[in-house]
Amino acid sequence: MTDLFDELTAQLAAAHALRRRLHASPDVSGDESATRETVLSALPAGVGSAGVAGTGAVVRIGGPGPAVGLRAELDALEVTETTGIEWASRRTGLMHACGHDVHLAAAVAVARAVHAVGGPAPLLLVLQPREESYPSGARDVVESGALAVHGCAAMIGAHVQPVLAPDVVACVPGGVNASSDEFELLVTGEPGHAAYPHLARDPVHALAQIVVAVQSIVSRNLDPMSPAVVGVSSLRAGAAANVVPGTAHASGTIRALSPETRLLLHQRVTEVAEGVARAHGCEAKVSVTHGEPVLTNDPALAELAAGQLRRRGLTVCETLRSAGADDFSYYGEQVPSLMLFVGTDTDVPLHSDTFLPTESDLARVATTMLAAYLAAADHLTNPAPTR
To answer: Where would a tag sit more exposed on the chain, N or C end, judged by fewer CB atoms within 10 A?
Structure first.
């Protein structure tokens, strides 16, 4: 029987062509139907699919039994491409600047290889919409029940990562991406003439003190070994230089690598904002919008995948973590999951208007996905003993 990796190599020429088609025709989050149809048309004839999460789809390859899920993201970013390549985006203001075109093409190559040769477990290809925007496509996939319907017992994903060197794959157990929440602050005071500040209660001054205070929460409330971020990114107040406004607004982000830290930061942002505002004769109201949970890799899956990756000649990094977020984390709340980060030939940052992974990068992403699929299939067949 042909080796799965040999078959994957045979599928790469078609994958490169698919990647170029996808790159040239990006779709914005929530409107990915055309991208979905392009991907589905590249899969083997006769393979069935079912719609999910609006513009997404799931495709099962293989017979009955527990399946291994493979996530690939359909959406692009609102970025104007400046690469100058022949197959650059034809849609003004839209670009695959995060590598989703690479992930999709690699996932199709893996699916075609498994379909052609057969695999140790069924493969459930999840073509997920809205990774780059809210409401989260991954959350909607989970809430749809599609994973349970298809017996998905493990999920894997891979993402290009230019901070890593080529041939390096980050395969890290535990928390690897932060939870991501947003907060809004409304400070209410008493308006007045700027020449008579003692007759007003200045919400701008109060907000300025709040900004300094909340951005000190991490350094004064957490163990220095516990990574987290509380940052204020937007300030809005007033319209005239000689008028003390009645209100001032701010918004920002809260990132944490553990659920416990996440809850603590929510609590402290509210307490600090309310307390500082009160000290300045004002009132603060805080609202927090919950985003993605912590992305936690299953340790057993990570260990098995690391072995598979090394056997393919890839270097495994077991330390890369970041305060970035990915809604792949919702899958990890349902089934054992593993997100891997694949080094690239380019060191241009993600979301840049010149970000352009190479064909070698696509091949490495596909190899990483297949290695992780085999590791997950092994995990389903031979689960690690309970300690």
So the answer is: C
Helices 100-117, 33-41: axis angle to 10 degrees equals 30
Strand 152-160, strand 67-73: pairing: parallel
Alpha-carbon separation of residue 160 from 128, 175, 251, 341 (angstroms): 17, 18, 30, 6
Predicted structure pTM score: 0.92
Extents of the domains making up the chain:
4-175+294-381, 179-289
The span from the CA of 57 to the CA of 35, in Å, is 11
Instruction: List alpha helices for 118-257, DSSP H.
Output: 137-144, 146-149, 203-214, 217-221
- Segment 345-357 shows an average pLDDT of 97
Q: H-helix or E-strand containing 373? A: helix 359-381
Question: Which of 43, 36, 40 lies closest to 14, judged by CA?
Answer: 43
Nearest to 204 by CA among 188, 215, 180: 188
Q: Which two tokens stand for residue 386?
A: 């309970």
Q: Please give the structure tokens belonging to residue 161.
A: 């990562």
Residue 254 has pLDDT above 90, yes or no: yes
The full length of the chain comes to 387
Q: State the CATH class of domain 179-289.
A: alpha beta
pLDDT in tens, 12-26: 999 999 999 999 999
- The answer to whether residues 244 and 202 touch, using CB atoms and an 8 Å cutoff, is yes
CATH homologous superfamily of 4-175+294-381: Zn peptidases (3.40.630.10)
* DSSP bridge partners of 255: 180, 229
Q: Of 204, 180, 179, which Cα lies nearest the Cα of 190?
A: 204
In 80-223 the beta strands, taken as DSSP E runs, fall at 123-128, 152-160, 168-170, 174-177, 179-188, 192-193
DSSP three-state, residue 337 = strand
